[in-house]
From TrEMBL, chain A:
One of its GO terms (molecular function) is structural constituent of ribosome. Belongs to the mitochondrion-specific ribosomal protein mL37 family. Keywords: Mitochondrion, Ribonucleoprotein, Ribosomal protein, Transit peptide. The keyword Ribosomal protein applies. One of its GO terms (cellular component) is mitochondrion. This is Large ribosomal subunit protein mL37. It is found in: Mitochondrion. The gene is Mrpl37. GO terms for biological process: translation. It comes from Dicrurus megarhynchus.
Automatic annotation (TrEMBL), chain B:
GO terms for molecular function: structural constituent of ribosome. Keywords: Mitochondrion, Ribonucleoprotein, Ribosomal protein. InterPro entries: Ribosomal_mL37/mL65, Ribosomal_mL65. This is RT30 protein. It comes from Dicrurus megarhynchus. It is found in: Mitochondrion. GO terms for cellular component: mitochondrial large ribosomal subunit. Transmembrane segments: none annotated. Its main location: mitochondrion. Pfam families: PDCD9. One of its GO terms (biological process) is translation. Residues 117-137 are annotated as: Disordered.
Length: 313, 453
């Protein structure tokens, strides 16, 4: 619905911070990681996905969105030649997420396919300092009086309260910490795709669900403030626009409206490139737009890579 | 009047004085008459050959590779569709005759000589691998003794940590088959459920792990489920029915392949043996291809390696093929066709690799009238999830049409192994009977690179 992220914030008791957290921004700005040389490769990855991948003239979004994602992940994974601990990551596709929590006497539950999940053996260290966490106590969650916060949510009779990281993984799974969730909006028709605002809300809800399930698995089902906050990242894209999000779960005490809140950093609507021209546009026998990728923004790719490297660097 | 008569006698053309040296006519600056050649539009053999010449001239003179490919596949006629993954009996013999390929069992000699030294328990580890080798020592005790190679004398190449690689492979396998809870597999879609994702995970993590060692991998491009197509002519036949009945036509073939995974690189792999080597015989089959069974269809003549000509990664490194449910081993055992199991792997390897290498050669501008000047080498791994077979192909010639094959001594070569299991069974979160040799083979394939790098 219209204030997608605001509603999600109320439901998950979260405070929003614009932009990426300083830890991730530090990785982006750090020249030691050699992010400049990867620009060329990122440009090739985009060209391959948008222009060269198919024997037809132009690939469709269902094809190029996953291909672009795979190419970017391939470039990120190749960094494990430089940072060997990056090989301790595993991608899992089509995992189902299920998490339940109570919010001011309303029982909420999130279930569904949560896109592509990347797990790692080691958890991401908390991004916000203790002072920032305590400062969220003063923050007041905005309400949408007179609209009930549960508007547009499906009311369902729940017989079993499930709480698992998707119940995706059996016990003893070595890569037990959810690291990043990837959402690809690849439907061909525009109305089937989520709009950016809704996509951000979906990312927030699923990141929260994963973090909550992990926290309950680690610390038990009692609602309390966590000493070791759980951090889960999330990236959503439709093939051109990227939304980056870092979510930190500080508390599982979600019944009341005050106390420590959870934190989320959102960097929204980052364009990776302006336009991908498959066939040169010719007006009156003069080439106005040559074929190729125009308006490539390397910063978006750097943020993608920084989110990938976060936690091991 | 007498003067007039003499004048007329002395007109040019009458030379009856013997002293006159006939003046050689000065060479004309341009021929007086156009060259006498066969007609273009007549219904005669000379006219047909003239039309062919003009077509070849057009393709030779094409400005860009895309234009060349467009002209090469412009004329559409019914052609045989060759399927790399086929249940046809003894398909690999037929495919070898279509593509003029020699099958050499085992692996090419240079792969055996360049084996990277492997850290075995007990040998003194070198350099940075020391802490990992030490930590893995309790786990590495089961490393088979056959993997011990003559130690540091093999050169400065650092040791490959088998324990690390094995744990990566086992983790991928366990995740897909055991840890991740998935729904039951769809009917006859078992391969998409477990072996498919396992292969993707394994190759991507191994490629990323080995990219530090192989700079070619660091610049590579990974395709998931790409398309590879190739169109060629081989041999001649007489048209059987229709308005073109009785004419002699080349036999046309088209391969449309979908490997599970493909690695493309910007630099070519080095040649295995020189261009003109002869390592065996190509089988000659006297029957029509439709006896295989192979069926004709007419559609677009595509030549495609997985991405368009503009892509910098235009050479192929390794392909990974997953055999579908229709061709699983149990089915062959049930029908008492055990010897055909290997045929399935071989025919897949030969057909897919021929299509890929030939399409790569066409992307560089070579075609059947302009034969390759350097050999094109690619590798492939064919698997059904548990059993792996490795193939290496060297394309030496593209000239397979009826006229160009007459004086062409070159043959394409394919090295291939039999299928071996990677593991025995997965039980309770443990992989039993893991075979290190197969993993080592896979790693060697991934580490293959040109000598300069």
């Amino acid at each position: 619905l219209f204030p997608g992220v605001r509603q999600a914030q109320w439901l998950t008791k979260t405070k929003l911070v614009e932009g990426l957290p300083p830890a991730v921004q530090g990785i982006v700005d750090n020249p030691a990681h050699g992010l400049q040389e990867l620009e060329e490769r990122a440009k090739h990855a985009v060209s391959h996905a948008r222009l060269w991948d198919t024997a037809e003239v132009a690939p469709r979004r269902e094809k190029y969105c996953p291909v672009l994602f795979e190419n970017l992940i391939h470039i990120c994974r190749l960094m494990s030649g430089k940072y060997p601990s990056l090989s301790k990551r595993m991608l899992a596709r089509n995992c189902r997420i299920a998490a339940t929590w109570e919010r001011e006497s309303i029982l909420l539950q999130i279930r569904g396919l949560s896109g592509i999940l990347m797990n790692s053996m080691t958890p991401i260290p908390p991004v916000a300092s203790k002072e920032e966490i305590l400062a969220t106590k003063e923050h007041v969650l905005e309400t949408f009086y007179p609209i009930a916060p549960t508007i547009d949510l499906q009311e369902v009779n729940v017989y079993k309260e499930l709480n698992d990281t998707g119940q995706c993984f059996a016990d003893g799974y070595p890569y037990s910490h959810p690291h990043t969730l990837f959402f690809l909006e690849s439907a061909n028709v525009r109305t089937d795709r989520f709009r950016p605002e809704q996509l951000r809300a979906k990312m927030l809800m699923f990141a929260f669900g994963n973090a909550l399930a992990k926290a309950k698995a680690l610390h038990g089902n009692d609602p309390k403030v966590l000493e070791q906050p759980v951090v889960v990242q999330s990236v959503g894209t439709d093939g051109q626009l990227f939304q980056f999000m870092v979510f930190q779960l500080n508390t599982t005490d979600l019944v009341s409206n005050d106390g420590v809140k959870n934190l989320v950093w959102i960097d929204s609507d980052q364009n990776l490139y302006e336009k991908a021209q498959c066939v040169p546009e010719v007006k009156k026998r003069v080439v106005t737009k040559p074929a190729g990728i125009s308006g490539f923004q390397p910063d978006t790719f750097k943020k993608f890579l920084a989110l990938y490297l976060h936690g091991t660097v | 009047m007498a003067a007039l008569g003499v004048w007329r006698l002395l007109q040019p053309g009458r030379r009856w004085f013997s002293e006159t040296v006939p003046v050689a006519p000065s060479p004309p600056s341009s021929p007086l008459y156009p060259p006498v050649v066969a007609s273009v539009t007549a219904k005669s053999k000379a006219a047909k050959s003239r039309r062919l010449q003009r077509f070849k001239q057009r393709v030779h003179a094409a400005a860009t590779v895309e234009e060349k490919l467009r002209l090469y596949g412009k004329l559409q006629r019914p052609k045989y569709t060759v399927y790399p993954q086929t249940f046809a009996l003894n398909a690999d013999r037929w495919y070898r005759s279509f593509t003029k390929t020699v099958l050499v069992p085992g692996m090419p000699p240079r792969a055996a000589a360049a084996k990277p030294p492997v850290a075995a328990a007990g040998t003194t580890p070198e350099g940075g691998k020391a802490p990992e080798a030490g930590a893995e020592a309790p786990g590495a005790v089961e490393v088979p003794q056959a993997a011990k190679t003559p130690g540091p004398a093999a050169g400065a190449a650092p040791y490959l940590d088998m324990g690390e690689l094995r744990s990566l492979a086992c983790d991928a396998l366990l995740q897909e088959s055991f840890y991740q809870n998935k729904k039951r597999p769809f009917l006859y879609r078992d391969q998409d459920h477990t072996p498919g994702p396992f292969l993707t995970q394994l190759v991507s993590t191994l490629a990323a792990f080995l990219s530090g060692r192989n700079p070619l991998l660091a610049a590579s491009s990974l395709d998931l489920n790409p398309e590879v197509n190739y169109y060629w002519h081989h041999g001649e036949e007489v048209v059987v029915h229709g308005h073109r009945k009785g004419r002699v036509d080349p036999v046309r073939f088209q391969i449309d392949d979908n490997p599970h995974l493909q690695i493309r690189v910007p630099k070519q792999l080095p040649e295995v043996v020189p261009l003109e080597s002869d390592l065996g015989d190509v089988p000659v089959i006297d029957h029509k291809p439709s006896k295989l069974p192979l069926f004709k269809k007419q559609y677009e003549n595509k030549v495609f390696i997985g991405s368009k000509v503009a892509d910098p990664c235009c050479y192929g490194h390794t392909q990974f093929h997953l055999l579908p449910d229709k061709l699983k081993r149990e089915r062959f055992m049930r029908e008492r066709l055990e010897d055909q199991i290997e045929v399935v792997y071989r025919s897949n390897g030969i057909a897919s690799l021929f299509a890929w290498t030939a399409a790569q050669a066409m992307y560089q501008g070579f075609w059947s009238e302009a034969d390759v000047t350097r050999p094109f080498v690619s590798q492939a791994v064919v698997t059904d999830g548990k059993y792996f077979a490795f193939f290496c192909y060297q394309l030496n010639t593209l000239a397979l049409t009826a006229e160009t094959i007459k004086n062409n001594p070159r043959k394409n070569i394919c090295w291939g192994t039999d299928s071996k299991p990677l593991y025995d069974v997965v039980e309770d979160g443990n992989v039993k009977g893991f075979n290190d040799e197969v993993l080592l083979h896979l790693v060697r394939f991934l580490l293959n690179r040109p000598k300069e790098l």
